[in-house]
Amino acid sequence: MQIKSLRIFDAVASTGSFGAAAQRLHTVQSNVTAHIQKLEDELQVQLIERSSSPVHLTPAGHTLLPHAQRLLQTHDQACALFAGSALPTGCLRIGAMESTAALRLPPVLAQLYQTQPHMDLQLRTGPTGSLLEDLQRGLLDCAFVAGQPPQPRWWGQQVFQEELVLVSPTPLPGLPSPEVLLRTPFLAFRQGCSYRQRIELLLASQGITSARIMEMGTLDAILGCVAAGMGFALMPRALMHTQQARFGIHCTPLPEPLRSQIGVVDTWLVAPQPQGWSPQLRALVQQLGMEGAAVTMVATAVTPM
């Protein structure tokens, strides 16, 4: 059944006239007649009793009418949702690095929820590599990851910038010597984490090729173990400012040129190209103030190979 046919049927039922229905829908009466006949042929019933004036519904017509009205209402609601004339509903599946989820996203998501109260938010944390895999598989609508999207068919926009600092259980006068770095473990997230890759680059810059990195599942586990004297970590400075008092840890900036080379990390929001966005995802992009960038990317989108 076509939506147009159901809308014409509803108009005939409410006006009691083929001609009045045609006027309401700005069409010709022959078009109304054709759509009603098409519905009757498809359902194999008579819907309209045409022998009276005004015309009226048959029992079959009365049965169809509430179904038609519900379908029309659902259709109109969906159109309004994607046209932006209705508040977004449904779930937005967001992926983020754990540090980004802890530091940057709470105020963004809280404000988004205040402006879009009918939306459901689902946040999944993980290392950049895993988040990109989930995005590729369609398990996420978007992801906050370290660096630009690795595929041209994805849309991406830089949203935050982090400075990484060395996290230790006691104050340090500067970067530890290669001997200290060699015998002291680093604590990090699992493979695929961009900060873990920066640890390897830091150690390589000091001539250490066999990095000893202990894998931890959560941010609290990493910082708790650092505080207990188990090793070092490499984390965003802004995040550590919120955690120093809680864990009793200390932060040491990376010296130049290491800071410029490996200590500055751009966080990007990565998603499918904008023509495939849901209203919920578009609301998040607007909340982040990137609507103009998204519109530009629609015009210059790369066609998938």
Automatic annotation (TrEMBL):
This protein's name: LysR family transcriptional regulator
Native source organism of the sequence: Comamonas jiangduensis
Lineage: Bacteria, Pseudomonadati, Pseudomonadota, Betaproteobacteria, Burkholderiales
Keyword list, A-Z: DNA-binding, Transcription, Transcription regulation
Family per similarity comment: Belongs to the LysR transcriptional regulatory family.
Domain HTH lysR-type: 1-58
PANTHER family: HTH-TYPE TRANSCRIPTIONAL REGULATOR, HTH-TYPE TRANSCRIPTIONAL REGULATOR GLTR
Keyword Nucleus (UniProt): no
Alphabetical list of InterPro entries matching this protein: LysR_HTH_N, LysR_subst-bd, WH-like_DNA-bd_sf, WH_DNA-bd_sf
Superkingdom of origin: Bacteria
Signal peptide (from-to): none
Keyword Transcription among UniProt keywords: yes
Cited Pfam families: HTH_1 (PF00126), LysR_substrate (PF03466)
PROSITE patterns on file: HTH_LYSR
